[in-house]
């Protein structure tokens, strides 16, 4: 009897399959909280086509959908979401523990060599239009409150922080001399000593 | 089912020979496949052996978004493998190209368009347990009663 047991263990011995610990970052899953479709998860996602915020059949309800085969499990969408719609591993627990959060702003670069000062970007910008409705044709408004306008024959950026990152200027530029880059900052709440 | 067939089924479940091909990956998935061989995951206790020779392989692990140089060669490797055979795509790259699938980039995903892929393991990179699970679940399904279904 003992020899049968021995033969069994010798030939069929297998270690128990490893279980993925719960703190591992898996593919993000929904927590059931309400999505406000601010699209921050889509904007922060480094992998093309990995996350989509879509309207569900219920009226007025949106939810993010993760596409497997595209998602790289970086967990950035989980971290950036202000409503905690997504969850993965212990991202939220760690963030609360360490007081870390993310913040992004947009950085507009104008190539002075290729920019010909046509002002198409400044006119096309939807934020500019709201600030100064007079800004049209050649983008030579006198308002300094706009994001950018043509100043001394070249497109000049005045208020970068107002940019919403729609990239309309980048698409409209005939010379591809405007570039909008998202600058992401991981920050930590520090207590004053 | 004949006795010979049942013996073949039993043997094929416990003896899966694997060949992996890197069609231009970042080496992340290669390392995860390599980790399967380590004592922690121990691939060989399940009867999976890595040979890296397509002529004696049952399972082909395709890693990486297919580069232009691999477009014809991937098919050549697949044709060299004896029947029954199965191809498993490891990682995001052979599925979608993932972060490398940008305009003007030198990748031609998916691997599906060159050879028939039986299973896809998403992840960047997928965990070794997920890779082992995929091989163990898909290979016996394809190899079972191969001669009858042929």
UniProtKB/TrEMBL annotation, chain B:
Q: What Pfam families does the entry give?
A: Oxidored_q6
Q: Does the keyword Manganese apply?
A: no
One molecular function GO term is: 4 iron, 4 sulfur cluster binding
Cofactors, names only: [4Fe-4S] cluster
Domain NADH:ubiquinone oxidoreductase-like 20kDa subunit stretches? 26-137
Question: Which UniProt keywords are present, listed alphabetically?
Answer: 4Fe-4S, Iron, Iron-sulfur, Metal-binding
Q: What family does this chain come from, according to its entry?
A: Belongs to the complex I 20 kDa subunit family.
Which PANTHER family does the record associate with it? FORMATE HYDROGENLYASE SUBUNIT 7-RELATED (PTHR42989:SF1), HYDROGENASE-4 COMPONENT I (PTHR42989)
Q: What is this protein called?
A: NADH:ubiquinone oxidoreductase-like 20kDa subunit domain-containing protein
């Amino acid at each position: 009897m003992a020899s049968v047991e021995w033969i069994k263990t010798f030939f069929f011995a297998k270690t128990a399959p490893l279980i993925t610990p719960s703190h591992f970052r898996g593919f993000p899953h929904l927590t059931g909280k309400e999505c406000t479709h601010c699209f921050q998860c889509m904007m922060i996602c480094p992998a093309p086509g990995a996350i989509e915020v879509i309207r569900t059949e219920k009226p007025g309800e949106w939810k993010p959908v993760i596409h497997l085969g595209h998602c790289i499990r970086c967990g950035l969408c989980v971290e950036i979401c202000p409503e905690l719609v997504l969850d993965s591993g212990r991202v939220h627990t760690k963030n609360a523990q360490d007081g870390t959060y993310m913040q992004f702003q947009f950085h507009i670069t104008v190539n002075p060599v290729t920019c010909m000062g046509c002002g198409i970007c400044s006119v096309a910008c939807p934020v500019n239009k709201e600030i100064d409705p007079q800004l049209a044709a050649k983008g030579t408004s006198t308002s300094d409150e706009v994001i950018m306008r043509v100043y001394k024959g070249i497109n000049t950026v005045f208020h970068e922080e107002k940019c919403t990152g729609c990239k309309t200027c980048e698409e409209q530029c005939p010379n591809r001399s405007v570039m909008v880059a998202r600058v992401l900052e991981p920050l930590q709440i520090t207590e004053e000593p | 089912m004949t006795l010979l067939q049942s013996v073949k089924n039993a043997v094929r479940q416990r003896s899966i020979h694997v060949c992996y091909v890197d069609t231009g990956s970042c080496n992340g998935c290669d390392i995860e496949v390599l980790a399967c061989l380590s004592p922690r995951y121990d691939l060989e206790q399940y009867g999976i052996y890595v040979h890296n020779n397509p002529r004696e392989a049952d399972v082909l692990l395709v890693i990486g978004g297919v580069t232009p140089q691999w477009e014809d060669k991937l098919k050549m490797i697949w044709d060299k493998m004896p029947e029954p055979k199965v191809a498993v795509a490891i990682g995001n790259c052979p599925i979608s190209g993932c972060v490398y699938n940008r305009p003007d980039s030198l990748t031609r995903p998916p691997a599906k368009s060159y050879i028939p892929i039986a299973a896809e393991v998403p992840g960047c990179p997928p965990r070794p347990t997920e890779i082992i699970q995929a091989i163990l679940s898909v290979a016996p399904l394809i190899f079972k009663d191969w001669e009858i279904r042929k």
